[in-house]
Amino acid sequence: MFCRMILTAAAPLLFAVILISPQAAMAADQIGTIKTSAGDAKIIRSGRPAAAKVGVPIEQDDVFVTGADGSIGVTFTDNSMFSVGPNTEIVVDKYVFDPNANDASFTANMAKGTLQFISGEIAKLSPDAVKVNIPTGTIAVRGTRFLVEVGKPAL
Question: What is the tally of structural domains in the chain?
């Protein structure tokens, strides 16, 4: 009878843990948040496009796509920030920020458009670990800010 009372009392707690665990796992995947969005702006996650709305969490492998009047501003968990301008396509391929384990890296691939980047803690912890690949090379960030525009190839 005593065991039955303990099980009855513990059941709601166990149920709550089961419900909360998937949400905690999803939150662990969040690498940043959309802070600004205007015009034709979307993110593509797992092949599915969605409007880039302020407050939406960002995950690794998200693709940011803007149209002719679009822009998106993102703040990452290490306080890095990037803003993409019109007609841009960029994906965050790798994002690791675990300052306790001294593990940090950021890699993005930009196909076209405009990007302003302001480095955060990752660049301070591991200066060689922040890279933005563009069609003609790689921008290695050493704790700074930069603006890059990737246009159409000249014929």
Answer: 1
* Confidence at residue 131, expressed as pLDDT on a 0 to 100 scale: 93
**Domain annotation covers residue 123:** yes
Instruction: Give, in degrees to the nearest 5, the angle at Cα 115 between 136 and 41.
Output: 120
Q: What average pLDDT score do residues 18-28 get?
A: 40
| Matching residue, tokens 């790689």 | 138
Q: Alpha carbon of 143 to those of 91, 121, 124: distances in Å?
A: 20, 9, 6
- pLDDT tens-place string over residues 117-130: 999 999 998 888 99
In 10 A of CB 113, how many CB atoms?
Answer: 21
Assigned domain for 14 exists: no
Determine the structural domain holding residue 56 and report its residue range.
Answer: 32-150
Cα distance from N-terminal residue to C-terminal residue, the chain: 83
